[in-house]
Each structure stands twice: as C-alpha cells, then as structure tokens.
Design a protein that fits this description.
The complex is a heterodimer of chains A (about 325) and B (about 250).
Chain A (H helix, E strand, L loop, with lengths): L4 E12 L2 E12 L3 E5 L6 H8 L7 E6 L2 E2 L4 H7 E4 L11 H11 L4 H14 L15 H13 L5 E5 L7 H17 L3 E6 L2 H4 L4 E6 L2 E6 L1 H7 L3 E7 L2 H12 L4 E3 L2 E6 L2 H11 L4 E7 L3 H9 L6 H19 L2
Parallel strand pairs in A: 3-8, 3-9, 6-7, 7-8
Antiparallel strand pairs in A: 1-2, 1-4, 4-5, 9-10, 11-13, 11-14, 12-13
Chain B lengths: L1 H20 L1 H26 L7 H32 L2 H6 L5 H24 L11 H28 L6 H14 L13 H9 L1 H14 L6 H24 L3
Classes of the chains: A alpha/beta (about 325), B mainly alpha (about 250).
The structure holds adenosine-5'-triphosphate and magnesium ion.
The site of adenosine-5'-triphosphate has 12 residues of chain A, from helix 1.
Chain lengths: ~325, ~250
C-alpha cells in the first residue's frame, strides 16, 4: 500500500462485555483525504476512533495509522495523530496558553518551535486575545476551538475529530469547517471525522455510513446520492398509510413516512409526478420534487432517519452535559 | 527516554502550576492542621500533665505529627485528583499522549509530593510558637523526610485513584483508610507499651507510623524506631505502591 494510505482498517471489532459495538469494519483513508464517519447515536463512531487512537484495545482485527499498528506500536501511532475528543478534555483551571504549552511539551515540540507554533494555532482559531484567560471562563465554542488548536499544535499526520461541531452554533460550525478545509490544503494532513450532521458530511471527500457497528456504504457523497437513483418526491396526503399502500401496489415503490410526509425515491421525477397525482386515490395536499440528500441515502439504506426528533433531544441533552461539566469545576 | 522525562517534567509542572494558582486552597489546607496544632494540641497538653498547666513537651511531640498530617492529606488529595481529571476528560488527553504511562504516574507522584511538601512547609513556619528550634541541617533533613512521606502517600493515592471510577467513593476512602492511617500513626499520641496490643500491632503495620517517627526524630529528637528502618519502610512502601499504580495505569482504557 505504501505511503498513499494513512489509515488501514481490517475487520476491526470491539465488544464491551460481550456486547458488540463495532462488528468487523474495514476501510482505508488516503493521505490528504477528509474521511467522514456518518451514523446515528450508538453506531460505534467513538469506539472506532478510540481503537484507532490506541485508547481502546480491539477485540479482534487489525488497524494501522500512519503505517503503525495500533496495538503493537502505540507510541508511534500517538506521535502521528492529533485528536479532538467528543467530550471536553481541557484542563479548565489552566489558561489557554498553559493548556497548549503543556500539550506541546508532552508531544516533544522543541522549545524554539513552540514559541512560533502556539501563537500560530491560537491565531488560527481566533483565540489569541484570550490566551491568558482560564479555560473555565470560555464558552463552549471557544473551548472547542481551543481543543482543535491543541490537536493541530504538534503537526500531526492524521487528525481525528469526534463530532467537532456538536452543540456549536452555525457560525462556529462554519468556521471550524473552514479550518478543516484550510488544513487539508495547507498542511496536507488526513482528517478522520465523525458527525451526524448531514450537511457536514457533504464536505467530506468520502463518507462511510455506519449503523449498529456495520459500515453499510462507503463512497463519495456524490456517488452515494447518485447510487440511490434519481430524485426524491415528498408528498403529503390526507391518509399517508393508505397512500403508501396504494403507491406500493400501483408503482412498486416503497414510500417512507418522515415527519408526517411521505418520501419516495424515483428515477425520473418530472415524468413520474403527473402519473403519481393521477394514479393516487388518496387526496394529495402537497407535493414537491428534489435532488436526494445524504439523509435520503441513509433513509433508503436503513429505513430510518439518522436524526429523528428523539435524537435531537439526546443531542441537546449532551450539549447541556458539556455545559454543566464546564461550569461546575 | 527523552519523551518519558519530558512527560514526567510536564505533569510535575502542571501540578505546581495548578497549586500556585489556587491561593484559597493553600490557605484553607493550612488552616486545618494549624487548628489541630493550636486548639487541640494546647487543649490536650493541659489534660496530659498531672497537676495542670500546659506542657510544651506535648506540643513538641505532636508538632511533627501535625506536619505529617498536612503532608498526608495534601498528598492523597493531589493524587486522587486523577479521578477528577478522568471525570472532566483531561485524563484522556494525557493517556493518548506519546509518552509512556508510567512516566505519567511518576510525574503525578512527584508533582503531588512537591505540593505536599510545600503545604507541610507552611506548618514549619510556626515552629517558634511551639518552642521548636532546629539547625539548617535539621531543616534540610526534615524536608527530605517530608518528601519521602509525601512521595510514599501520593503513590498510595495514585494506586487508589486507578482503582476508583468516580469521586463518589472518595468519602469512603477518607473515612476507612486515610483517617485511621493518621490516627494510628503515632502522630497525636505515643505508641509505647501502654497501648492495647491490637492497637500497637496496627501502628506497626502502618507505613505512615515510620514516616512520622522519622520526622519526629529529625525535628525534635524523639524516636521509637531506627531511622534506617523508618526510611526503608517509607521508601519501600512508596516504591511498591507506585509500581502497582503505574501497572494499573498502563492498562487503563
Ligand atoms: N465504555 C463502554 N462500556 C460499554 N458499552 C459502551 C461503552 N462505550 C460505548 N458503549 C456502547 O457501544 C456502542 C457504540 O458507542 P459509541 O460511543 O461508539 O457510539 P457513537 O457512534 O460514538 O455514538 P454518538 O453519536 O452518541 O457519540 C453503544 O451501544 C454504546 O452503548
Ligand atoms: Mg460518539
């Protein structure tokens, strides 16, 4: 394989007390690639990252990062990677500068380089003005940016970002994505990130869709959308159940209900829509046609939405936990 | 090796930095032993002397005990802050760093020990009030002994911390390990033949007893065991605790 791939994963498995969290996944990530792991809560995203970062021992299977085996050559793997954990991991009593300084020290960044590099990354995440403030006085978004700066400080070959934008406002999310793209271009590093925001996944070079510990698809966002075929018709009717049954019977297409609307994937929407309207006995109250999104890909492959209303709730709870933990220190 | 040394140094420096930032904690940690020394010590010293009147002898006796207490508590609290690091996530940052885990354990042990010695040194400032005076050599030896006690107890604390998942069990540790260890160390009362046999046995198997004895010998010249036995047990206990602690730390996931 040589120097083209930075991450190679082969039949990697993890069980927690006999309960499988990751069930034998395989994939490669190329040098300079932004690779996204897209999946719902509990899919096994964090577990995978933890194994690749040497924090968790795989139950079976192999993985190498930057050419080093994650179980046999842990220190070499750790030297190669930068990491932003899903949960906060800063020392809140220390200032931003102190957090970065200690990080640089344990990663063996030479002193001369430290003096240059720290201001550089602080500038990158626009925290230079707050560098001497204790981290506990930072907002959630600022902490996240500082963690990103810390992950980049020692010039890693591979950057792991576990839901880097969870709980952040749209502006901050947007800014973090700007950094990620900039990094890929300027520093040429590979980035492995997890997310369950569909719009973010669109920014990746390639995506693996993971559900219940399995990778169910792996491709570029364009190909994934292409592969599910054609277009998506969203339909609201007086009786969705009856309409769905009718559609299945008459056109052989399965329609899935999503938030009170029926969604169906068709090859040629412009021509299909008039037929559908004519052919349906149940009264249609609204209808629209659009290009498929990754959400539709997920829906098609699993029969579920990646984030339904309940998931949103969990997500908010997580964000609150982060905030609370930050404060109670 | 260079990475390991840098790791030790960095974790030590982090402990010192955090200590110096937290002035209120320094003051409140010093307040408790001082309260014991002056209020309890003065009070008890009158009780122990037949015919009334305070005994400077008793205050001299407990003074090294109180310093040991300060060192003990600070050591254990610093070490157990690993549990807080785990709860607040910072521990992950350390565990994923490219330094051997044992260097993390040693760095924390040295950091916690330094902080504990500094905290103990605050009590040393009050020597004139309890009529204790010592030479420069005695003072240096006292620092050395304090450091050994601190290192031993911090290592013990690290071992406890690696075996605990949350801070909730900490109250239990305090009540069932730390306080008994302190009470049975001979810090507050002599542990001669007048004690019941079972209690003497407990005093003898308590490693802290030897630390207290060493410090008392150094500062006020009273001793029960030989200084070499004292040092052997204190250092030996610390080394064993740190080795086991580092081993568990190595396997932390
Ligand atoms: N330490 C653990 N002990 C036992 N089970 C665990 C542990 N960590 C994770 N799991 C389980 O493993 C599965 C995968 O969890 P993981 O954290 O990898 O999911 P995730 O994809 O990161 O989800 P999220 O989007 O919520 O972060 C879940 O079912 C979870 O309950
Ligand atoms: Mg996760």
């Amino acid at each position: 394989m040589g120097s083209k791939t930075t991450i190679e994963v082969n039949e990697l498995k993890k069980e927690y007390n006999g309960l499988a969290a990751v069930r034998g996944i395989s994939f490669n990530v190329a040098r300079g690639e932004v690779f996204g792991f897209l999946g719902p809560n509990g899919a096994g995203k964090t577990t995978t990252i933890s194994m690749l970062c040497t924090l968790l021992r795989p139950t079976s299977g192999h993985a190498t990062v930057n050419g080093f085996d994650v179980t046999r050559d842990k220190l070499a793997v750790r030297r190669s990677i930068g990491l932003v954990f899903q949960d906060p991991s800063l020392d809140e009593r220390l200032t931003a500068l102190e957090n970065l300084k200690f990080h640089a020290m344990i990663y063996g960044v030479p002193k001369a380089d430290r003096g240059k590099r720290i201001p550089e990354v602080l500038e990158l995440v626009e925290l230079a003005g707050r560098q001497n403030d204790p981290v506990k006085t930072f907002s959630g978004g600022m902490k996240r940016r500082l963690e990103l700066a810390r992950g980049l400080l020692h010039r890693p070959k591979v950057l792991f970002l576990d839901e880097p934008t969870l709980g952040l406002d749209p502006q901050t999310r947007h800014r973090i994505w700007e950094y990620v793209k900039q990094l890929k271009i300027e520093e040429g590093i590979s980035i492995f990130l997890t997310t369950h925001y569909m719009d973010e996944a669109e920014n990746c070079d390639r995506i693996a869709i993971i559900d219940h510990g399995h990778i169910i698809a792996i491709d570029t966002p364009e190909e994934l959308k292409e592969n599910i075929g054609g277009e998506v018709i969203m339909l609201a009717t007086k009786d969705n159940k009856k309409a769905a049954a009718e559609i299945r019977e008459r056109f052989g297409i399965s329609a899935v209900e999503v938030n009170g609307d029926l969604s169906l994937q068709v090859a040629d929407g412009n021509h299909f829509m008039p037929r559908l309207i004519r052919g349906l006995e149940t009264e249609i109250t609204s209808i629209s046609l659009r290009k498929p999104t990754l959400e539709d890909v997920f829906l098609k492959m699993t029969g579920r939405r990646i984030r339904d209303e309940k998931m949103e709730g969990i997500d908010q709870a997580k964000t609150r936990v982060r905030a609370k933990r930050g404060r109670s220190r | 090796m260079k990475a390991a040394l840098m790791g030790i140094y960095t974790l030590w420096l982090r402990d010192i930095t955090r200590f110096l930032k937290d002035k209120p904690r320094i003051v409140s940690s010093a307040a408790q032993p001082l309260l014991w020394l002056f209020v309890l010590g003065m009070g008890l010293s009158t009780a122990f002397v037949r015919g009334g009147g305070g005994s400077p002898q008793y205050l001299r006796f407990i003074y090294p005990g109180i310093i040991s207490m300060s060192v003990l508590f600070t050591s254990i609290f610093s070490a157990v802050s690993i549990i807080w690091d785990r709860e607040f996530g910072f521990l992950k940052e350390v565990l994923v760093a490219p330094i051997p885990r044992w260097s993390v354990a040693i760095g924390r042990a040295l950091g916690g020990s330094t902080v504990a010695v500094l905290q103990g040194a605050i009590i040393l400032l009050f020597a004139p009030i309890v009529h204790v005076s010592f030479s420069a050599l005695q003072l240096m030896s006292a620092f050395l002994v304090m450091f050994m006690i601190a290192f031993s107890m911090t290592s013990f604390g690290i071992l406890i911390a690696t075996r605990m998942q949350t801070h909730e069990g900490f109250q239990v540790i305090t009540n069932f390990i730390i306080l008994p260890m302190f009470f049975l160390s001979g810090a507050m009362f002599p542990t001669g033949r007048s004690l019941p046999a079972w209690m003497r046995a407990l005093v003898h198997i308590n490693p802290l007893s030897y630390g207290v004895d060493a410090l008392r010998g150094t500062l006020v010249g009273m001793r029960g065991f030989s200084i070499w036995l004292d040092l052997l047990i204190v250092i030996g206990f610390g080394a064993i605790m740190l080795t086991i602690g580092a081993y568990y730390f190595e396997r932390t996931e």
